[in-house]
Design brief:
By secondary structure, the chain is mainly alpha-helical. It has one domain. The protein has three helices and no strands. The chain is rod-shaped. The relative contact order is 0.03.
């Protein structure tokens, strides 16, 4: 083998020194550097794994928060719908109440008007009766004062009837 190495231009002593030096270098690297590098790599891998887990937890927490927000939003929307429906119902009720009150007021005004017309008519009838009574008294006085013949008595009664008819026509038709 020595011949082969010499044939290739390799010094066997130098080769042995290089192999022993390389083995020592590997041993030293393994003992001091690879352990620390491996430890650093393991720590880095653990940190990355922890960051990934933390990110997963944050994502899950964000998903939960989003779900809660969506639920709260749905509750707010439902509450808004309910309040809107209640406000609409109250507004419709208020309008209905105002209409009912207006109808009641209108009815009261009509009834007051009818009552006033009735009282006015009664007063007018009472006035006509009083006037007729006054006229009857006046005729009776006149009859008593004068001795009437039949022709004159018929004329007075006809005049009395004309006066009552004219008075009734002047006051208008009664309801």
């Amino acid at each position: 083998m020595k011949e082969l190495l010499e044939g290739l231009g390799i010094d066997p002593g130098a080769l042995l020194v290089n192999v022993v030096g390389f083995a020592i270098l590997v041993y030293l690297l393994k003992r001091f550097a690879f352990g620390r590098i491996g430890q650093f790599m393991d720590e880095r891998a653990d940190a990355i794994e922890a960051d990934i887990e933390h990110a997963r937890a944050d994502r899950q927490q964000a998903a939960n928060a989003l779900g809660n927000l969506n639920r709260d939003l749905d509750e707010v929307r439902e509450q808004f719908r309910a309040e809107t429906a209640e406000s609409t119902r109250r507004a419709k009720q208020a309008v209905a109440d105002m209409h009912a009150e207006a109808r009641a007021q209108r009815q009261a005004i009509v009834e007051q008007g009818e009552e006033q017309v009735r009282r006015t008519r009664e007063a007018m009838v009472a006035d006509v009766k009083a006037e007729a009574a006054d006229m009857a008294v006046a005729i009776a006085e006149k009859v008593l004062r004068d001795s009437l013949d039949e022709e004159r008595q018929a004329g007075l009664v006809d005049g009395f009837i004309r006066d009552i008819g004219a008075k009734a026509a002047a006051e208008g038709p009664q309801a």
